[in-house]
Each structure stands twice: as C-alpha cells, then as structure tokens.
C-alpha cells in the first residue's frame, strides 16, 4: 500500500503541470481572443481578413494536429520550443479562436444606442470601446469564457503526446507500472472534476462582480 | 444674432433608394430656439442625427460655427471629412435622445463626468463639482450616486440633459425627448428645458410632437413633410394662421388627437 503514496505524488506532479498549462493557456487564449475578436470588427478590411483567417483555421483543424505542427514542424523553421511552450501555444491559439467569436458577439450585442451616446459626447473610438462598450460587453462574455476555460482544461491531456508529463500522462505511467487502471484513473477523474469546479466557481464570482450595478439592465 | 451658426445648403440624404431629405436649405442663428415639427417620417429626426454626425450625408453641405461639418480642406481642395475633423466639430454640438441612452454601468454622476474628463482632460474634482451643479439645476442633486436603472424615465432624461450640458456645447439637439416618457413625467423634463431656454444663449433645435411646448419654447417653427420645409415662421403665426394646406391638415389632426396648440 506504501507504493500508492509514491504513485499519488507522481499524479499530483502531473496535476501541477495540468494546472500550469490551463492557467497559461487560458491567459494566452484571453489575449488572443480580444485581439482577434476586435480584429473581426475592425474598420480595416485586411485586419478583418487576417482575424477571420486565424479563427477559421484554428477552429477548423484539430488541436492534436496543431500541437504536432507547433512542436515538431515549427522547429524546422528555427523556432525551437519546449514542450510546455508548445502546449501553451497550441491550447491558447486553439481556444483563443473560439473566444474571439465570443468577444465579437458580445461587443455587437451592446445596443447601437450606446455607440450613438458616445458619439454625442464626443468620445474617440478607443474611448468608446474602453469606457462604454467593453465594460458592458464583458458580462456577456464571461459565461462562455467559463465554458471555454473548462474545455481548455480538458484539452490539456493532448500534451501527453509530445512527452509533457501532465496528469493524464502520469496516470498512464502509473497504470503501466502497477497494472491497475482503476486507481490512477479514479484519481485523475476526481482531480479534473475538482479543477473544473474551481474554474466554474471562480467564473461565477467574477460574473457577480462585473455585473454589479447592472441588475435590471439585462 | 447676425451670423448663422448652422447653415444647411441643398442637403440630401437617402437610405438606399429611399430619399428622406431632398434639397433642404435653412439657416439657424446663434441663440435661436428652433422647433422642428411634422408627421413621422418627414425627416426631422434625420436632420438632428446628421448634425450630430450619426448619419452620413448623401449630398449638399452643412456649416457649423462657420466651418464645414462634412468637408475639410486638404492641399487646397475640399474633401470629405475624416474622423479627426468630425471629432473636432462635435465639440460644438450636444444631443439628447428619445431613449436617454445613459451608460447603464456608470452612476448618474459618472455619466455626466465621463466625457468632460476624457475629452477635455478635466480633473475629477472640477468635473464632479460641475456635474453636481448641473444635477442641482435639473432637480436631481440627491441622485448623484444612483445607477440609471434606479431612476424613472423623466429622471433619466434629466440626467441625459445634464450629461449633454456638461460639455458646454454651443448647439443642443433635442430629439423627441419626451416621447418615451409616461405622460405624468413629461412636464418635469419640459420644465428643465424651458428654464434652459430662458437662462442660456445656447442654440437649440428641438424635434417634438408636443405642439404646446413647441409654441412656448421656440422662436421659429419649421413644419416638415417628405424631407422638405413646407412652412416656417414664428409659432404664433404658424399655429394660429398657417398658410399651407398641408400644415393646416396636420394641425387639425393634432388638435383632433386632443393636443393644445
């Protein structure tokens, strides 16, 4: 039974890798989502085109293939990445493409009235976005961002394919060493669930904070 | 009152194949209070929206404070205005909307101080002080820290008036500002506007369906139909002795609907 403690430590080390991937991947996804989402509604056609191309490409191909390209093919052009960097990049770019559409949709959902009020008080385009439109669009984005973050958490397991020892990878190691499938996979099942619960909880709190004072508006 | 503050020359506006304004000409003198009346779809609101640069024009020319609104000089030639020019011109003009359009995520005070702080670089203390003075003027001094969703329609509209005034424009546009209000809330907004008209030398353009108010408020009334001015004159003349048949029939309908003119 003493061995289980060692195996559990192994899985927990993997869990830490999963947490890091999720947090860094989500951070990248968030940044990318805003850049591409705002790009989609740019006044300049070439910016819109670029954003659309990125979104369609990363939504339209599998994250597995994207990861292999980033980790194995990109180095041929001279851009050598650690497995962690490649994992964060694949996750961030993939989920960011979904997030971009959320950003765009939420911005377009803010009524036209609000844009017109901004023109009437002579705010610049940037000030309109920063002070009026985005603060109202953000509460609309958060529920879907929560979904995306959980999707990203679950997608982290693909990185085991580029030899990054995340939670799923470690569970496979334990399974092959002990011959037991039940113990490692029950453990990581619970751990994944705990992590996604933590994400949901965090997002709900955030939602409550940003919608404060907006009750009665929507 | 010698120099027109607004000059509209041969203005045309169409939405697709629908022409809403067709060869419109009129001047507004500095300090003048103008009421624009007429049936729905006659183009009155579109004129205000064009002056606020919320719509593009299809042809013609507008001058505001002696400068072209939709045109600018570049290399000695007159070209369509860019965003920077429009931004500069908008300083002269403020607008109050039918549906108030307050910022729902900002308090009453922040609604008023946001633009002066951002566009004029006013310090918060100074902006706050003036916002409170304006709230006092519209009778809402005690509501500074409320959110717009906690106010009645009439209160919201009075905040919207204060918000527009905070930028000290020379020209104020009022677009059917009482149309979205419950009848018993109309008076409180009209009261504020009457006081404004009496106490300031701001130029005001008002689109309204309240004929009684137009009569008390305006120096001149323009009656619009199908994107053209059918008749204009001092309210006493236009309301009591209209010349055109179109004006007469419009006023008859208004009276039949129970309004005082």
Automatic annotation (TrEMBL), chain A:
GO terms for biological process: amino acid transport. It is found in: Cell inner membrane; Cell membrane. It is a multi-pass membrane protein. CDD domains: TM_PBP2 (cd06261). The chain crosses the membrane at residues 6-36, 57-74, 182-202. Gene3D superfamilies: MetI-like. Its main location: membrane. PANTHER family: L-CYSTINE TRANSPORT SYSTEM PERMEASE PROTEIN TCYL, MEMBRANE COMPONENT OF AMINO ACID ABC TRANSPORTER. This is Ectoine ABC transporter membrane protein /hydroxyectoine ABC transporter membrane protein. It comes from Paracoccus versutus (Thiobacillus versutus).
UniProtKB/TrEMBL annotation, chain B:
SUPFAM superfamilies: P-loop containing nucleoside triphosphate hydrolases. It holds the Pfam family ABC_tran. It is a peripheral membrane protein. Residues 6-251 form the ABC transporter domain. GO terms for cellular component: plasma membrane. Gene3D superfamilies: P-loop containing nucleotide triphosphate hydrolases (3.40.50.300). It is found in: Cell membrane. Its main location: membrane. GO terms for molecular function: ABC-type amino acid transporter activity; ATP binding; ATP hydrolysis activity. Keywords: Amino-acid transport, ATP-binding, Cell membrane, Membrane, Nucleotide-binding, Transport. Belongs to the ABC transporter superfamily. PANTHER family: AMINO ACID IMPORT ATP-BINDING PROTEIN, GLUTAMATE_ASPARTATE IMPORT ATP-BINDING PROTEIN GLTL. This is Ectoine ABC transporter ATP-binding protein /hydroxyectoine ABC transporter ATP-binding protein. The lineage of its organism: Bacteria, Pseudomonadati, Pseudomonadota, Alphaproteobacteria, Rhodobacterales.
């Amino acid at each position: 039974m003493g061995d289980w403690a060692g195996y559990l430590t192994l899985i927990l080390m993997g869990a830490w890798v999963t947490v890091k991937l999720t947090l860094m991947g989500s951070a990248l996804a968030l940044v990318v989502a805003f850049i591409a989402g705002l790009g989609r509604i740019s006044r300049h056609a070439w910016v819109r085109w670029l954003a659309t191309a990125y979104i369609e490409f990363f939504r339209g191909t599998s994250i597995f293939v994207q990861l292999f390209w980033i980790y194995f093919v990109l180095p041929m052009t001279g851009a050598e990445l650690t497995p962690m960097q490649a994992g964060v990049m694949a996750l961030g770019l993939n989920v960011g493409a979904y997030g971009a559409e959320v950003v765009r949709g939420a911005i377009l959902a803010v009524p036209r009235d609000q844009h017109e009020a901004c023109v009437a008080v002579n705010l610049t385009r940037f000030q309109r976005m920063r002070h009026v439109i985005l603060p109202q669009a953000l509460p609309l984005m958060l529920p879907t961002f929560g979904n995306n973050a959980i999707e990203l958490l679950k997608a982290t397991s693909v990185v085991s394919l580029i030899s990054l020892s995340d939670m799923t990878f470690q569970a496979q190691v334990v399974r092959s060493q002990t011959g037991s499938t039940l113990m490692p996979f029950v453990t990581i099942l619970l751990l994944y669930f705990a992590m996604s619960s933590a994400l949901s909880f965090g997002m709900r709190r955030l939602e409550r904070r940003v919608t404060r004072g907006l009750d009665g508006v929507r | 009152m010698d120099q027109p503050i607004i000059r509209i020359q041969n203005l045309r506006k169409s939405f697709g194949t629908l022409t809403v304004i067709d060869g419109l000409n009129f001047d507004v003198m500095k300090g003048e209070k103008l009421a624009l009346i007429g049936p729905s779809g006659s183009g009155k609101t579109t004129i205000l929206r064009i002056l606020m640069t919320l719509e593009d024009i299809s042809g013609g020319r507008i001058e505001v404070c002696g400068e072209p609104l939709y045109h600018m000089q570049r290399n000695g030639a007159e070209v369509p205005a860019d965003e920077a020019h429009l931004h500069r011109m908008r300083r002269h003009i403020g607008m109050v909307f039918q549906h108030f359009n307050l910022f729902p995520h900002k308090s009453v005070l922040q609604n008023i101080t946001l633009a002066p702080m951002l566009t004029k670089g006013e310090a918060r203390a100074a902006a706050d002080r003036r916002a409170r003075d304006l709230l006092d003027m519209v009778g809402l001094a005690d509501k500074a820290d409320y959110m717009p969703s906690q106010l009645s329609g009439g209160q919201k509209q009075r905040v919207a008036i204060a918000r527009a005034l905070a930028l000290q424009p020379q020209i104020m546009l009022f677009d059917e500002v009482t149309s979205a209000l419950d009848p018993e809330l109309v008076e409180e907004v009209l009261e504020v506007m009457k006081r404004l008209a009496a106490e300031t030398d701001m130029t005001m353009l008002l689109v309204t369906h309240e004929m009684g108010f137009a009569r008390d408020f305006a120096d001149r009334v323009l009656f619009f139909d199908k994107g053209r001015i059918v008749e204009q004159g001092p309210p006493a003349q236009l309301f009591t002795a209209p010349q055109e048949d179109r004006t007469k029939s419009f006023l008859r309908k208004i009276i039949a609907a129970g309004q005082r003119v």
